[in-house]
Amino acid sequence: MDALEVGRVRVKLGLFVADVFASVPRKDQRAKSDCYLRGLMLDGRRKSVQAMAARLPDGNEQNLQQFVNQSTWDPVPVQRRICERMLPLIDPVAWVIDDVSVPKDGRMSVAVAPQYCGALGKQANCQVAVSIHAATDTASCPLQWRLFLPEEWASDTARRTTTRIPPGVTHREKWRLALDMLDTLAGWNMSPPVVVADAAYGTNAHLRAALADRKLAYVLAIRADVTAHPFDAEPSAPARNGPTGCRPQPRYRHRAPSVAALATGLGQEAFTTVTWRNGSRGKLRSRFAAVRVRPAGKAVERPVKAAASAGQGWWDGVLPDCWLLAEWPEDAETPTGYWLSSLPADTPIADLVHLAKIRWRIEHDYRELKHGLGLDHFEGRSWPGWHHHVTLVTAAHAFLTEQRLAPKAPTPVSPSTKSSTLSRTS
């Protein structure tokens, strides 16, 4: 947005800030949040504090630096208020788990480490943040963020002290951070219609089990080597060894095939063409098949066996079933994509495909957050500063989303134009 466009929405922005940042106790801090949001929304290649202060007529670099990096205002109530405003407005069909990486120089920025950097497509020195987004085909917004703390930071007292990482924060796997965010949102009485994630999360059986424990439906991408039994496979037990011998545990007598083998074994004739949305170049369609399967593996079996043993004292060996959705494009020699879903058995395949493909919307979010609103332009190094900046970027994104979704006022018609139109029609 240029300065004129920002000026046109100053009143609306002021009302937005007054509501979203009402938990910030000091009036001058709320004024700085308004200033910071305008700086994020203004055109400009860099959205660092120095660059934004130089572009804003009321910008004060020292004040903005102090507001973001040293102030003690709590970003959590602000994040909650953003969610309370955005969820009813967007009315999401799914919540999407994803993560974003920011390349960094040096080793003193909080949580920076050599790790896989999606922005560069390789191992690099970067920060990684896990996020949850509410999404439809037409709108989306971030709901929560967690900064991933690599293992090397867990016991690095010097860097933790310098970057002001709270004592209780330690290394947690990304999928656990995603569950933490879902639990936080549940504590605010917010729950997802469906949870969606890519294969980096969906392949993890512990995540799938945790979502099932929380009674959250999911459509999760998985790798081709994930194993599953056919739906009609049945466990069996060998004969008991004498009247006093131990009763053998029922189990599946054949090794579970990979989902790639199961999908290929269906044959191309089992795949049907499904259109999931309109793209910039027309309708997006491909061929899909959906079958019920029973995911296998020790990570799947252990919680099921433990729950059955605790409830009834024994387990019949039957693994829970779910959907396996597979994609096999016409020009491909083998299937190219796989998803597991806990949605009901009567769910139409078109709905499964639509949810499996909804992640594209989050890439749109990341582009706007990074390139338009300066998500990755933060130059501070502290834990509080990072969370303040990300919360402010999320607020700016929420405000712009509200403006896009607001009903458009009809264009006024001048009396002369109206008269000429009537004379032509008569």
UniProtKB/TrEMBL annotation:
InterPro entries: IS701-like, IS701-like_DDE_dom, RNaseH-like_sf
Pfam families attached to this UniProt entry: DDE_5
Lineage: superkingdom: Bacteria
Positions of the Transposase IS701-like DDE domain: 20-282
Compositionally biased tracts (Low complexity): 414-426
Region named Disordered: 232-251, 406-426
NCBIfam families: transpos_IS701
Name used for this protein in its record: IS701 family transposase
Organism from which the protein derives: Streptomyces luteoverticillatus
